[in-house]
Amino acid sequence: MTQITTSSGLKLAYESFGEPENPAVILIMGLGAQMKIWPDSLCAAIAAAGYFVIRFDNRDVGRSSQFDQHGNPSLIKTWLQQKLQQKPQVPYTLRDMSRDVLALMDQLELDNVHLVGASMGGMIAQILAAKHKKRVRSLTSIMSAARAPGLPDPNLKVLLQLAKRPSPFNREAAIRYTMRMNRLIGSPAYPMDEVELRQLAETSFERSGTPGGFKRQLVAITAAGDRSQLLQKIKVPTLVIHGSDDPLIPARLGEDTAAGIRKAKLKIIQGMGHDLPPALVPKLSRMLIKHLHKSEKKWQRKIIRKEQKNTLTHAETSHTERRIQTG
After folding, report:
1. Containing domain of residue 35, as a range?
2. Strands, E, within the chain: which ranges?
3. Please, are residues 68 and 212 in contact by the beta-carbon 8 Å criterion?
4. pLDDT of residue 326
5. Is 225 buried (19+), middle (13-18) or exposed (0-12) by CB count in 10 A?
6. Which of 58-67, 157-166, 244-253 has the lowest mean pLDDT?
7. 140: alpha, beta or left, given left = phi > 0 and alpha = psi -120 to 50?
């Protein structure tokens, strides 16, 4: 694991797979989740296909900077302010988190990348693809949406259960909580066994036992409101992947996301919930690599056309200058 410090003093922890000279893929994780939730086998498969893969901890989770000084913001208050078209007062926004990705890219000297975002990470990736077109080669939005679930959306009950942390908060209580929540949002057709669940929970606790970041990220999602109009600005090749059995962000929101982005491809995986279980990695790897390969070829053709145009323009300019000189 490596860590960078942004110009604002924010620390972001990251890991990389593959060769730095290959096209870069940045994986953006979701609500309250650490970069380790991206399966090692998935990262390795993408790297083996010829890409430089970077996964990182978002702010307020894992080994990146924590924002505990901002305390425990109110989800209900944030939602009400959003509904009343008031600007919610939140510790940070999804736009701020998208700037974190840009800062990571700058530190790693990456002019442009392929973005893959899961859940909240997909929301952050959508913002980047719409607002920073020249820095994004392609977008993959996994189990994500263009808006937050609204009260009294029944899926919000799951969110509220996720937000309610055990008390007292100690190692065993935290591990049991994480295992229970992963069962709650997991994929019915690709269930993780108890050993896998516990290993994932233990890794998460050992890397960061601070629970407050989840709530602060949740209010950032709520404060973001509806991004449906923003989707229309996304022009890069886009793949939307969603589970048919997602209990947190229903598949219809994934369908809406794909419908809102020009020429986006939609893949609904039967039996998938709101997780990335090991048993699903081979299927996800194939989908992602196919999309990355197609998008990369399109990007390279774009670069060639731009270079040819610049060469032609330069030649025409030189010819004009010679005519003026000889005239």
Report:
1. 2-326
2. 2-5, 11-17, 24-28, 52-56, 113-118, 136-142, 238-243, 265-269
3. yes
4. 59
5. middle
6. 157-166
7. beta
Number of domains comprising the chain: 1
CA–CA distance, 298 with 184 (Å, rounded to integer): 39
pLDDT category at 158 given cuts 50, 70, 90 is low
Cα–chain center distance at 118: 5
Question: What residues contact 138, with CB distance under 8 A and at least 6 apart?
Answer: 114, 115, 236, 237, 238, 239, 291, 292, 295, 296, 299
Long-range pairs of 148-152 with CB within 8 A, sequence gap ≥ 24:
148/221, 148/222, 148/224, 148/225, 149/248, 149/249, 150/79, 151/76, 151/79
Mean pLDDT of the chain: 89
Q: What is the pLDDT of residues 248-269, one digit of tens each?
A: 899 999 999 999 999 999 999 9
For residue 170, which amino acid is it?
Answer: N
CB atoms within 10 A of CB 210: 13
Identify the CATH number of the domain in which residue 261 sits.
3.40.50.1820
User: In whole angstroms, what is the distance from residue 181 CA to residue 169 CA?
Assistant: 15
pTM of the model: 0.90
Q: First-to-last CA distance in the chain?
A: 64
